[in-house]
Amino acid sequence: MAKIKVTKVRSAINRTQRQKRTLEAxxxxxxxxxxxxxxxxxxxxxxxxxxxxxxxxxxx
Length: 60
Known about the structure:
By secondary structure, this protein is an alpha+beta fold. The chain has helices spanning about 15-25, 40-50; strands spanning about 5-10, 35-40, 55-60.
């Protein structure tokens, strides 16, 4: 299965509660923090909902 690296690049201040919870569910707390996840449909859906707050890159 493919892996993706998700990096938080923007603050969650003045964001909806749903977006804040999505960041927490992905394991992102601080700006610059990087987490690695499998590229499942669930994870990709969460990332697409907060794409303006994170950057994503594929890994092997």
